[in-house]
Amino acid sequence: MKKPTAYVFLAVLSVLMIYPLVWLFFASFKENSEIFGSLSLFPKTLSFEPFIKGWQGAGRVNYSHFFLNTLYLVVPTVLFTIISSVLVAYGFSRFEFIFKKFLFTLMISTLMLPKAVLIIPKFILFRNLEWLNTYWPFIVPAIFAANPFFIFMMVQFFRGIPRELDESAHLDGCNSFAILYRILIPLCKPAIVSIGIFQFIWTWNDFFNTLIYINSVSKFTVSLGLKMSIDTVAEVSWNQVMAMSMVAIVPSIVIFFLAQKYFVEGIATSGLKG
Family per UniProt (predicted)? Predict the structure, then answer.
């Protein structure tokens, strides 16, 4: 495919991919009756009322509360995921210990497990631990590196870093943790940022797991708040739902574009090295 043709194809494809977001943006400024009653992309009158009324939420809980709840859930989950994944990957990539290959194979094999298989066992476990209606079902697994995808990603990155750097640091008096902190982590910044972006977006947008484990409105996240906005009224104010949906995706978009350079470098490098 020649370059001009490829550019045209990619341009058309990008428009098709981004059009739903563009429609969502303009629909959030429309009147409720205009959203499905007009084929025009642009609103007849620009109104910020959907954002103002939508932010008030439903009942006594507004979206300020939903956003704070989401941050309480997302921030520790992302931080603990990064820390635990780096430590476990460091162990697999730099140390020799008994049953290393078996444990690594076992860890990788969990990637093949369908998420549906784990729902009931995890729910029973967290219920017995009395963690339902709390954020512990999300935070505690992050502490113990429960996501094998991130571990494998970091292992691939560590394997691409020459061991001679570790040996040189060891001769200079660095112990294992000093080598990790002073030598390897600065070199792994792209991969670490990639893990943070992935985990942030997945946890921020998570609806299914929060629906299962959280049942109190006061602890609802943004995704559950959006669903509640639809369920609590007989006639849905879709312009308000669109407005809050638009606000809800802004943090993920901002985080991605701020760290896009490291994200692309981390994915490319971890995929090529091994």
Answer: Belongs to the binding-protein-dependent transport system permease family.
Assess contact for 248 and 223: CB atoms under 8 A: yes
Length of the chain in terms of residues written? 274
141 occurs within a structural domain? yes
pTM here is 0.87
- The residue type at 207: F
208-228 pLDDT per residue, tens: 999 999 999 889 999 998 888
3-state secondary structure of 134: coil
Instruction: Work out how many domains the chain is built from and give that number.
Output: 1
Which DSSP symbol is given to 211? H
Contacts of 29 (CB under 8 A, 6+ apart): 43, 46, 47, 48, 50, 239, 243
Does 13 fall in a domain?
no
Report in angstroms the alpha-carbon separations of 90 from 27, 160, 167, 204.
48, 12, 15, 27
pLDDT tens-digit map of 85-122: 999 999 999 998 899 999 999 999 988 888 888 999 99
Exposed/middle/buried for 29, CB within 10 Å: 0-12, 13-18, 19+? buried
Q: Which residues span the domain enclosing 238?
A: 46-272
User: How many C-beta neighbours within 10 Å does residue 225 have?
Assistant: 22
Q: What is the CATH number of the domain that holds 122?
A: 1.10.3720.10
Alpha helices in the chain (DSSP H): 3-27, 32-37, 49-55, 63-94, 100-109, 115-128, 136-143, 148-159, 163-171, 176-179, 185-187, 189-205, 208-213, 222-231, 238-258, 260-272
